[in-house]
Amino acid sequence: MPTYDVRIWSVRQRKDRGQASAELRWKTGQTPHSQTFRTKTLADGRRAELLRAMHSGEPFDETTGVPVRELRESKEVTWYQHARDYIEMKWEHSPGSTRRTLAEAMATIAPALVTDTKGMADANTVRVALYSWAFNMTRRTEEPPADVAKVLAWFERKSLPTSALADRMHVRSALDALTKKLDGTTAAASTIRRKRAIFHNALGYAVDAGRLSMNPLPQVQWKAPEQVAEELDPATVPDPRQALALLNAVQAQSARGRRLVAFFGCMYYAAARPAEVIGLRVQDCDLPRRGWGVLWLRETRPRSGSAWTDTGKAHEQRGLKHRPRKAVRTVPIPPDLVALLRWHVTAYGTTGDGRLFQTSRGGLIQDTGYGEVWAEARARALTPLQCASPLAKRPYDLRHAAVSTWLSSGVEPQVVAQRAGHSVAVLFRVYAKCLEGAAVTANARIEATLRGGR
After folding, report:
1. Which one of 63-67, 434-438, 440-444 scores highest in mean pLDDT?
2. Residues 6+ apart with CB under 8 A from 365
3. How many whole angstroms separate alpha carbon 404 and alpha carbon 37?
4. Closest residue by Cα to residue 419 from 310, 313, 292, 308
């Protein structure tokens, strides 16, 4: 809305987090604005431009705070369009799971960066339209349903100009939005960090594109909601006796359960991630008749969803998580797992490319399928009280059980981290409580050695 009610204050210098900057503040109608510059000279120059427009009697746009003429001439790019441009820039070189994450972050932020919420659809409808259509490049050429098209047209009209994010209050609104889930509850700490990093990167891209003079995010004094530390909850981790009972319960089920017992065994005995086990090939296994064997984990088959992959298939073929594409992780495996894998190969064979695990129809193992088998195994192996608890709630807890067992057995953290595919820093952060138990074992061994020297 145009207004002639404009007040412009003097530039003030700031020093946030050791970085000097200059802030220009002004007000159009009842709406305050601010813009941060690297130097006072730049801020004074912008102030002079605004003063000239005000003294010339030009109307200002109340929402953005800039002269209407300037707004018209600049052909401002909205944040909604900028977010689409940003995702398009990242798309080609991103795996499906990252594409999904980018879309989720932008779909969370976009509703907070609008001129007003009048006429906005409900939260679920907005999320579907933005996440599944606006920010999914595979659907750029498709015609969206009428209800989706209506939501997207609304955002094209109502989205703030990208330049408006020079006002740090808009940035703060976006940061607050990314802390919430759709139901209004607080998101997990890892989710908030991930979305904030994407937002920071998108603002950096706006600077590169000339849509912002500088990235305003580092200047915002904002703190994420207090979160519980990212430590593993010991209540979720089955002990060796419980883990074996669960594996036996898997094997005692139908033919589908027997086909999956070695799959779960790899997670428990080798601390392998599900996507790593799905991609495991027989040529990457050393399975001697006696003694310990070895797995060479070299690829993953994560399920990203067919809507997010270039091939249109639900699974992608990628390297190990957070490792170079050709990295290989060597994991020694105990005789129990060696025997289990030998039995599996004899009973079910392998796929044409050597993969060990496949469905009865030769397809890739699906998380929904093995999740159902695991739920049945818990009902059979655990007491009703244990079933109602978080104990072994997810198959992934078998991997946690493996790492916890290694640590409690006194294996050095560096060795555990290497076998599990973690950094030592992550191991210490996530498995802190398990490390406390390992420390007791280590102390007892040190004490015994010291006594032996007396």
Report:
1. 63-67
2. 260, 263, 277, 278, 357, 358, 359
3. 51
4. 292
Tokens of 147: 């209800």
Residue with tokens 């990295």: 327
Enumerate residues 6+ apart whose C-beta is below 8 A from 231: 429, 430, 431, 432, 433
Q: How far apart are CA 436 and CA 145, in angstroms?
A: 55
344 pLDDT tier (thresholds 50, 70, 90): very high
Structure tokens at 283: 């040529």
pLDDT of 274 > 60? The answer is yes
How far apart CA 17 and CA 20 sit, in angstroms, is 8
- CA–CA dist 379, 198 (Å, integer): 40
The DSSP bridge partners found for residue 12 are 23
- H-helix segments, 35-183: 40-55, 68-74, 79-91, 96-109, 123-129, 146-158, 168-177
> Model-level pTM?
0.65
Q: Tokens for 415, please give them.
A: 């060795």
Give the tens place of pLDDT for each residue, 159-208.
999 999 999 999 999 999 999 999 889 898 889 999 999 999 999 999 99
Q: Return phi, psi of residue 296, to 5°.
A: -110, 100
C-alpha to C-alpha distances, 77 to 215, 217, 324, nearest whole angstrom = 16, 19, 37
Are 232 and 250 in contact, with CB atoms under 8 Å apart? Answer: no
Q: What is the average per-residue pLDDT within 243-255?
A: 93
